[in-house]
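Running co-folding for zinc ion.
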Amino acid sequence: MKKTLLAVVAHPDDETFGMGGTLAYYANSGVDVHLICATRGEVGEVASEMLVGYKSVGDLREHELCCAADELGLKKVHFLGYRDSGMQGSPENQHKNALVQAPVNKVAREIAHLIRQIKPQVVVTFDPIGGYMHPDHISVHNATVVAFEITRDEKIETGNLHLHQPQKLYFHIFPRGFFRLVVKLMPLFGKDPSRFGKNGDINLAAIMKNDFPINAKINYRKVSDKRDRASACHASQGGDRQSGYIVTWLLRLFSSHESFMRAFPPSENRRIEKDLFAGI
Ligand SMILES: [Zn+2]
């Protein structure tokens, strides 16, 4: 059976920032890499001059995602059609189509339906705090975990599709060493680590309180140029500069590896896998 990898994310640029090296690495190795993106990033801040030629922010960011998908070598992007919920507490959270308003079981069934169509052996998504506590990332994490369980349950029907049981589920992890460095260095640049990110709404100190084991590290040095080109596609989000200069610089230090926790099957030892398909 053809090796197939499925990544489930919330917004255009999530596929590149975080796990893009891994997706490019597997696509380059001949694996079919599919992406599910729950929203079109409708709430992202975009400079007005970038919108020329596009009907909306969502339209522009969908275009940027397709550009990045081409650079990463993805087989197909599947949109779930929800609306970007914005950061926690923003009025966009209340929009009736916002991802955070959708019941987790509904989103999970949609993802499960796609899993049975795409038939991946390996599924990757955000960690339980959505990387940096973005509400949409947490929604996608929760729905993907339920979707994985649904597809492993023979009794639960998803349309008229045949049963397909993916074998492994991973969560992408930003290494805490990376965050620790950011927290230490930010004051040197006159920045407050509890007000991180383009909009100052990411509390790194709170994120650091949640630690997750790293069970797999993927070295993507061979394809780092593809990841860089995919980043450049997301020009409306500042390309690779979206979270500021320090982060870009630090990501370079960590740039040849991406880290994952293995959620299923649970990891029983401290050995770190170098391949998400190990044992398949
Ligand atoms: Zn996102």
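Result summary
Residues 53 and 213 are 44 Å apart (CA to CA).
The chain is about 35% helix and 15% strand.
Job closed.
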